[in-house]
């Protein structure tokens, strides 16, 4: 397969940054009950690589939510009603691939609070530079990137290119 678009973040660069994030997260949650919630499908690679870098007791949940239709946000988040976890007395980190409009993380964050988590933080691999519909403050951001459509390392273009080891920009 010919790699699409141009390279933005190489595989070694991603690996190094994920290791740093893991270190920082572990330090903060030492001896605290932690649940990491990965939003599927986009965060699948990031979630796995990150959790491997957490040398602390961690529970992992995968939630499937959808807001994108093709290359644009549809403005509605689907699937949250099926997302459940026992979070009472636990600290939660929501892990997602990319912060774009903020709609997804805003709704998921509220849902995690409603489930009774002791604390809720957000960790995104990428944060797009753009005007956001809702204000979201992730505690951890892997990389700030320009407002371009990106694929690879879990991110897809209508199902394509999710399996690339690096992140590439298409437009
Ligand atoms: P938000 O709700 O607009 O912040 O959208 C977040 C979701 O949209 C992400 O979890 C991605 O699945 C998807 N998304 C946003 N921008 C991109 C992109 O550039 N490439 C691939 N998926 C994207
Ligand atoms: Mg996603």
How does this model look, in words?
It is a single chain. With 171 residues, the chain is α/β, with parallel strands linked by helices. Helices cover 23% and strands 35% of the residues. The chain has helices at 11-29, 44-52, 103-114, and strands at residues 6-9, 34-40, 58-64, 66-69, 72-78, 91-99, 119-128, 140-145, 150-151, 167-169. The strands form 3 sheets. It has a 5-stranded parallel sheet with strand order 3-2-6-7-8, sandwiched between helices. It has a 3-stranded antiparallel sheet with strand order 1-10-9. It is globular, with a radius of gyration of 15 Å. The two termini are 19 Å apart. The mean pLDDT is 95. Magnesium ion (MG) is lined by residues 39, 42, 96-97.
Key structural traits:
alpha/beta; 171 residues; binds inosinic acid; binds magnesium ion; three-stranded antiparallel sheet; single chain; five-stranded parallel sheet
The average pLDDT score comes to 95
Name the shape in a single word. globular
Structural class: alpha/beta
Span of the ends, CA to CA: 19 Å
What is the count of β-strands?
A: 10
Listed once per kind, the bound small molecules are: inosinic acid, magnesium ion
Strand order of the largest sheet: 3-2-6-7-8
Gyration radius over CA? 15 Å
Low-confidence stretches: none
Return the string of H and E elements.
EHEHEEEEHEEEE
Query: In DSSP terms, counting alpha (H) and pi (I) runs of 4 or more, how many helices?
Result: 3
How much helicity do the residues have? 10-25%
Please report which band the strand proportion falls in: under 5%, 5-15%, 15-25%, 25-35%, 35-45% or over 45%.
25-35%
Characterize the largest beta sheet: strand count, sense, and whether it forms a barrel.
5 strands, parallel
Assembly state here?
single chain
